[in-house]
Structure prediction request, 77 residues.
Amino acid sequence: MTRTEAQVRSDIGREREELAGAVEHLRGSLGEATDIAGKLQSKLPVVAAGAASAGFVLAGGIGATMRYFARRGRDRG
Prediction:
């Protein structure tokens, strides 16, 4: 089965349109996936609480807090 030049051009044009549509769909999906600010904004209280908790633990947590209050008590008395 031999295809004519017009058929080949038509097939190439159709494939080009399909590829352009796929690229646009991919761009839209990529834009949604990389919208970090939008995702964080909707979960800001949870993210802030998590960051504060992580900072507290990394800074020594309860032990450091207890040492601080113990030191303050000795300095006053």
User: Anything to note?
Assistant: The radius of gyration is 31 Å. The chain has a mean pLDDT of 85. Residues 40-77 form one domain. DSSP finds four helices and no strands in the chain.
